[in-house]
Amino acid sequence: MNEVINLQEAVVTLGQFPALTGVTLQVSQGEIVTVCGPNGAGKSTLLRLCAGLLPVREGSASVLGEDLHTNRRSIRPDIGLLGHKSGLYDDLTVEENVAFWGSMVRAGDLEVKEAIKYMGLDGRLRNVLVRQLSAGQRRRTSFAGLVVQRPSLWLLDEPHAALDTEGRDLVNNLIQDAAASGATVLLVSHAPKELSSPSGRFVTLAGGQITSDTNKEGSGDGTS
Amino acid sequence: MNEVINLQEAVVTLGQFPALTGVTLQVSQGEIVTVCGPNGAGKSTLLRLCAGLLPVREGSASVLGEDLHTNRRSIRPDIGLLGHKSGLYDDLTVEENVAFWGSMVRAGDLEVKEAIKYMGLDGRLRNVLVRQLSAGQRRRTSFAGLVVQRPSLWLLDEPHAALDTEGRDLVNNLIQDAAASGATVLLVSHAPKELSSPSGRFVTLAGGQITSDTNKEGSGDGTS
Amino acid sequence: MELRDAWSIARKDLRIEFRSRILTNQIAPYTLLIVVLFGFALDADTQTLRDTGPGLFWVAVLLIALLAVQRAVKIEDDDAAKERMLLTPVHPSSVFLGKAIALFVQLFALETLLFFVMLALFDLSVEDPLLICFSAVLATIGIASSGTLYGVITAGVGVRETLLPILLLPVLAPIAIGATRTFGDAFGRVDADGWAWFGLLSVFAVIYTVLGMFAYGQLVEDA
Amino acid sequence: MELRDAWSIARKDLRIEFRSRILTNQIAPYTLLIVVLFGFALDADTQTLRDTGPGLFWVAVLLIALLAVQRAVKIEDDDAAKERMLLTPVHPSSVFLGKAIALFVQLFALETLLFFVMLALFDLSVEDPLLICFSAVLATIGIASSGTLYGVITAGVGVRETLLPILLLPVLAPIAIGATRTFGDAFGRVDADGWAWFGLLSVFAVIYTVLGMFAYGQLVEDA
Amino acid sequence: MKIKFKEVKEGRFNATSSRSTRFLGFCLALGIPTLILFAFVFSPKDDTMEDAVRLLYIHVPVAIFSYVAFGITAIGSICYLWKQSRWWDTTAHASAEIGVIFSALTLITGSIWGRPTWNTWWEWGDVRLVTTLVMFLMFVGYLALRQVPAQPQIRAKRAAIVGIIGTINIPIVNRSVEWWENSTLHQQSSLTDGNLEDLTLFTWFLGTLILGIAYLWLMIHRFRVGWLASEHEALGYGAAIEERQAEAGIQTAIASEYREEGEIE
Ligand code: HEM
Ligand SMILES: Nc1ncnc2c1ncn2[C@@H]1O[C@H](COP(=O)(O)OP(=O)(O)OP(=O)(O)O)[C@@H](O)[C@H]1O
Ligand SMILES: Nc1ncnc2c1ncn2[C@@H]1O[C@H](COP(=O)(O)OP(=O)(O)OP(=O)(O)O)[C@@H](O)[C@H]1O
Ligand SMILES: [Mg+2]
Ligand SMILES: [Mg+2]
């Protein structure tokens, strides 16, 4: 199978602090992987590493076939990252924001319109400044930007945070659709496994390392 | 029973936009009320109204026995609000932040220490700058500031967001303890009711109005 | 109002400033740069510079004060700390006082530095050191008070960086004028009655401080 | 690199600026204030003012440029938009160009305003309008390019407000010197060969723009 | 910029001195008294500037070596961008620091010299003075940027670009007296036009040589300090990893590997 993410004992330091202390993880194309773990375990750091935003200090790491040691740049356009921050311009409206990020990834007007509609932002909200949105609406706008991008690797940091029930379902569908169409999804979630998570595979991170790697059924295919 | 929050057809506008369009809500002392509702329903606005941070435009509103029309100030020290933003200083350490907010509410050193410990922030994290914390650790620090305050009305906007399972339990306990000792808690949550929420009463907000108000058992004591 | 609160707040602000080493690593060099820029823009001989020295000193102080006020506001604004402050029993005038004290300390330290640099570069000699000291202290109190007050007015406005200067500079102008005259007198460059101007500075310092302590509460209440 | 991207980015920046009306409501008055402040600090007769006019003009422009660069950086920094930009196929030099264009447009608009105000206030007369125009354009290109470059260097630093001036002002100084001389010549106030200085300005404009387009990519890559 | 931890070995980088620096230091110890002797005793007075001319022997060499220092910073910066090696980054940093000291000395000695000869400490209209000051401030800014906490790679890259741009100043400062002939009191190139007395010229060469050695000596030490500092940053690495892994209650490969090599106290 095609390995989209392949980390071997990867170490990442933030300042002096080793946020990841040797992560070994393989993710194949089309997989949906949920990363869980306590606060400060290094989940967000893992996502940022996979997005090529952080240097690998030790170990080997490759994403989408590129070695992160030598080239962290060329893969980035194929990656969609939804972090804790939303990456929006406060003084532009919802539509302007999505259209801007759309134009940056060469999406057409139609796609922008559809993304806005898909995330339930049409109608009044379309022309509201992002500054004035509620937390959940903001999050949705950020998502709409990802939808127009159609990345081949989705990295989602707590995608369900701040969303209402309908929004959660929307996101779950989105993730499933993306995976079905060949994209790979790595998402961080604090929600308990029992919840309707779109993922079959759960990876637990703690102390900057992967402590368990199981399918929902509980069958470990452990790397640690 | 003592009405801690008493809103009658309260209207709040943000800019031109009526975020609350006539909310009627009574909350008695010691109650735990969970506010749910879709994104943009006005939940955060409701909390900010109850904290005396927003002016009431129409209708009547009183909190902790004070009329919000005439006096939004004197009640504030008794209110603890945890909003979407954390209210911390990025360039101070965890301990310095909690100690500062502690000194602002006249808490002793011992209480500060205990709050830090309670929120699982002792050890290494105590001396880490807030800027460097992970999302969940930040949230915990913010909570620690509330714990030292011991307000008599807790207004929590998605208190479980970004917290891990252990953190959620901690917060649930905290809420229950607070209510048991006579404080009132109003919390916003997107988590489904089935989850172990500390609340018996659920209020649903939509379109700036309360659309349902039920106990967990499903027995409406409806105000709308 | 409790002085203890004011002190906690001042300490917190100063600690944040100290931690980021802004004063030593950045504002201080900026101060020097401003002097250089002026000296250069005037392209003038030392005589002119000597005459305009006091004026330049205070214009430089105003520009530095702007930066310092912006920092002070940003600290509170960044993560809604300002709002959280409202939900404590601390009296707004304590907050005002605390932030003004922190601002005063920073400004005064920078003025001292700037003073000696200009003394050397512009070849000035002091005739009345007492007047210099006192008027600098009072002018700085006035600047710190009004800066803090206007800082909170522009807080949370989003366009703070640009709104603040246009609001604050006119307010500071009288102080700058007064201080320029006292300095001019103290350097023996102009025939002004320094101590009379000094009276004006005191009046402004008192007015802005008292006004600030009252108005601050009014302003933050609805924020 | 695609020009279309640069243009989208420039439009976005200008739209944000336009929406917040910073240019008209705040920077413009600030500009005027600076001029007034200078006039005041000099306390001089019209003759001196007329001679120092070009220098004051460019010092004012530098201070305005600082404000504008800070705004431009803040827009990208506030909500991690800068990082998101990395995850698009847009070439960094397009981003650089786009942001520099937006900065240029804003600065140029303000310079025009400032120019006419100073013309009126300081009672200057233009001898060589062509030189004024060309040198203003080139100097502004240099300022916009280096401003954008240094903006990204200080982006995300937390102490941006204070770090930026001390890094940027020395870099802008040669441009300000050159432009002052061309203006001085164009106003007929000094005996400089304006067009020679104009050559210097062109060199700086080209150097900073080319350097910026290369360095920008280097800088954002790891951010 | 991958830091190899294995290099941290007992004694290897413990001190910043080595045989070559001790030799340079020895040369300086001999050279400085000699220079003083020549400058104050043997070399003649100037016809117009009298004893003040003796400042020449320090003023000009420090000015020249501030150019050299900033030039090396630029080279180090370019090479850093090219090779991404910590070696070049440390070189650039070390050189900039010394350059700042040297240009400060240029400014100070120049001012002192200006007092008796031009009757002023400082002259704003003078381009050489102002451009020298600008150059000095630019690298003060460079050092300030280096103080800002950031990821080492990012900081190095930012600094490298600022360092490269900073060198634009060198030709400006150097040529300023020709380009702006009318607006400077400062000497134009007077040393090379051959009207100097032999002993003056010799003393000047001696000064340049001594200052050159001083630069080299300082540079080597400062570089090693810088190197040690980044090494020091990396020192707690193994222990930090172990501690971090303990958060999860696990002990695995990397930590135990380091423990075996005895690099963790
Ligand atoms: C603060 C004041 C001064 C500054 C910043 C300054 C700066 C400099 C610099 C940067 C150089 C190196 C020029 C080059 O080789 O490219 C230099 C050279 C020199 N300076 Fe100064 N200087 C100052 C005052 C003076 C004074 C007062 C004198 C004597 C009257 C003087 C005499 C010289 C001479 C003779 C040279 C060698 C010129 C050559 O051959 O290139 N300087 N100065
Ligand atoms: N400069 C630093 N110094 C010390 N510790 C740091 C620094 N930067 C980051 N950290 C630590 O590194 C970890 C970062 O973890 P990360 O943000 O990846 O956590 P996370 O798993 O996403 O947690 P959360 O669930 O809370 O979002 C945190 O424990 C944080 O305290
Ligand atoms: N100035 C404004 N102009 C127009 N609409 C505004 C303005 N300010 C706020 N709003 C709207 O008011 C509502 C604010 O709701 P609020 O933040 O209380 O939502 P919420 O229930 O907390 O939602 P969430 O679950 O997403 O946090 C949003 O729908 C927002 O779009
Ligand atoms: Mg996280
Ligand atoms: Mg909300």
Can you offer a commentary on this structure?
Chain A is built from five helices and ten strands. In chain A, the strands form two sheets. Chain A has a six-stranded mixed sheet with strand order 6-7-8-3-9-10, with helices on both faces. A four-stranded antiparallel sheet of chain A has the order 2-1-4-5, covered by helices on one side. The two termini of chain A are 21 Å apart. By secondary structure, chain A is of the alpha/beta class. In chain A, β9 and β10 form a beta hairpin. In chain A, 27% of the residues lie in helices and 29% in strands. In chain A, 61% of the residues are buried. Chain A has one domain: Rossmann fold (3-Layer(aba) Sandwich), CATH 3.40.50.300. Chain C has 223 residues and is mostly helical. Chain C has one domain (3-222). Helix content of chain C is 84%, strand content 0%. In chain C, α1 crosses α5 (92-121), α2 runs antiparallel to α3 (46-77) and α6 runs parallel beside α8 (194-221). Chain E has 265 residues and is mainly alpha-helical. Chain E has a single domain, classed as Four Helix Bundle (Hemerythrin (Met), subunit A) (Up-down Bundle). Helices cover 71% and strands 0% of the residues of chain E. In chain E, α8 packs across α9. The longest helix of chain E has 38 residues, at 198-235. The chains are: A alpha/beta (224), C mainly alpha (223), E mainly alpha (265). The complex binds protoporphyrin IX containing FE, adenosine-5'-triphosphate (2 copies) and magnesium ion (2 copies). The site of one magnesium ion has 4 residues of chain A, from α1. Residues 43-44, 84, 157 of chain B line the site of one magnesium ion.
Taken from the alpha-carbon principal axes, the silhouette of chain C is globular
Q: Note poorly predicted spans of chain A.
A: 216-224
Strand order in space, largest sheet of chain A: 6-7-8-3-9-10
Poorly predicted residue ranges of chain C: none
The Rg value of chain C, from CA coordinates, equals: 18 Å
Any idea what the CATH architecture of chain A is?
Answer: 3-Layer(aba) Sandwich
Mean pLDDT of chain A: 87
CATH secondary-structure class of chain A: Alpha Beta
Distance linking N and C termini of chain A: 21 Å
Summarize the amount of helix of chain C as a percent range.
over 70%
Alpha-beta content class of chain A = alpha/beta
The major pleated sheet of chain A works out as: 6 strands, mixed
What is the CATH superfamily of chain A? P-loop containing nucleotide triphosphate hydrolases
Mean pLDDT of chain C: 79
